[in-house]
Design a protein that fits this description.
mainly alpha; single chain; elongated; 5 helices
Length: about 150
Amino acid sequence: MTTAVILAYLGIGLMIGLSGIGSAIGVSIGGKATLGALKKNEEAFGSYMLLSALPGTQGLYGFAGFFIVNGRLAEIAELSVLQGGMVFAAGLALGLVGLMSGIKQGEVSAHGIEGIGSGYDVFGKTMVLAVFPELYAIVAFAATFLISAGL
């Protein structure tokens, strides 16, 4: 196995793994807040669930990035070290951004869940604020797409 192939598959692994971990942590943060808020206000479970699920998208960006990069790699007969490094860089970037944005989105969502549980009407405002960390995962996904186009 060549260095280029090792770099590429390490990048793909980081892309999927780190963004998936970010989603798992983020939805768990929202889930924990939901369990606490349910003790105060059971009727708002639908709002809690939607806010808790938001960080799950980061893992999807990692998975979509895999499909984009993997499809492009299948077209390349001989992978160069530069191309392997490009895939590694894209995977590391998307993975790290997905990890952090998933965690931070989970924290924003959790605070909104706590507010709703306390009787405040903050669902819409929380949705808007929770989308901000997602923007960076979208930017990292777009960068992955652009990097794969340059392979």
